[in-house]
Design goal:
Strands 3-2-4-1-5-6 form a six-stranded mixed β-sheet. It is of the alpha/beta class. It is globular, with a radius of gyration of 17 Å. Helices cover 35% and strands 18% of the residues. The chain has helices at 12-15, 29-40, 56-65, 97-104, 117-140, 154-165, and strands at 2-7, 49-53, 71-74, 147-152, 179-186, 192-199. Pfam families: His_Phos_1. InterPro entries: His_Pase_superF_clade-1 (IPR013078), His_PPase_superfam (IPR029033), PGM_Phosphatase (IPR050275). This is Histidine phosphatase family protein. It comes from Lachnospira hominis.
Length: 202
C-alpha cells in the first residue's frame, strides 16, 4: 500500500512567512498555479481514497489535485494553534519577549495562548491512524484500497513522518504542494508496518 502525504498549496500567509495555523486562509493565485503545474507534470499519484484537514487551504488543494474524488475531512488533522503568534512573521515578533522565550525553548514550549507542540503532534498522529483504521476496515470489505492520499499541513506531515520513521520533527519539512510517498502494509492485527518512503520531488 502507498500513502501519499501532500502539503496544501500556498496561501498569502505562506508567501509572507507568517505563522498560519488556525487562520482559515484560501489558496492564493500563485499557490493554485503551482498546483496546476505539478498536476501537468504528473507529480501526484492517483489515489483510491483522499483524506483532508478541515481547513480551506487543504480542502481546496485536495479538490484541485483529486477533482473526481469525494474528500473525507478529519478535524484532528488540522494545523497547530500558534496562539498570539498566529498571523505574524518572525520580523513582527522579533521584539516580543514571549517569542524569544519560545525560541529559547527550542520550540518545545506551549505557544502562548495556543497549543502545546507535542500535544499537536500527538493529535496529528491520532488523526492519521484514525483515517488509516477506516482504510483497514474498507479493505476488510474487499474495497481494495491500494493508494491513500492525505492533503494536510506541513506540521501534520512532520508529525506523521517523525512518528513513523524516527529522526527529528523538522527533518521532514516540505514545501507547499510537496510531500512524501510511504510504502507500508497492515498486519493481521491492523498495525501498519513501514518499509520506506521517498519525497514527491524525488
Amino acid at each position: 500500500m502507498k500513502i501519499v502525504l501532500i502539503r496544501h498549496g500556498m496561501t498569502e500567509g505562506n508567501v509572507s512567512r507568517r505563522y498560519i495555523g488556525i487562520t482559515d486562509e484560501n489558496l492564493c493565485p500563485k499557490g493554485q498555479q503551482i498546483l496546476n503545474e505539478n498536476i501537468k507534470s504528473r507529480k501526484y499519484p492517483m489515489a483510491d481514497i483522499v483524506f483532508s484537514s478541515t481547513m480551506k487551504r487543504c480542502v481546496q488543494t485536495a479538490k484541485i489535485i483529486y477533482p473526481e474524488k469525494d474528500i473525507l475531512k478529519e478535524e484532528l488533522l488540522k494545523e497547530c494553534d500558534f496562539g498570539i503568534f498566529e498571523g505574524k512573521n518572525y520580523m513582527e515578533l522579533s521584539d516580543e519577549p514571549l517569542y524569544q522565550q519560545w525560541i529559547d525553548s527550542g520550540g518545545s514550549n506551549t505557544f502562548p495562548g495556543g497549543e502545546n507542540p507535542y500535544g499537536f503532534r500527538k493529535r496529528s498522529v491520532e488523526g492519521f491512524y484514525k483515517c488509516m483504521d477506516f482504510v483497514y476496515r474498507m479493505n476488510c470489505e474487499d474495497k481494495k484500497i491500494e493508494t491513500v492520499a492525505f492533503v494536510v499541513h506541513g506540521g501534520t506531515i512532520m508529525s506523521v513522518m517523525s512518528n513513523a520513521f524516527g529522526g527529528d520533527y523538522y527533518d521532514y519539512s516540505c514545501r507547499n504542494g510537496s510531500g512524501y510517498i510511504l510504502e507500508c502494509k497492515f498486519d493481521e492485527n491492523n498495525l501498519l508496518h513501514y518499509s520506506g518512503y521517498c519525497g514527491l520531488d524525488s
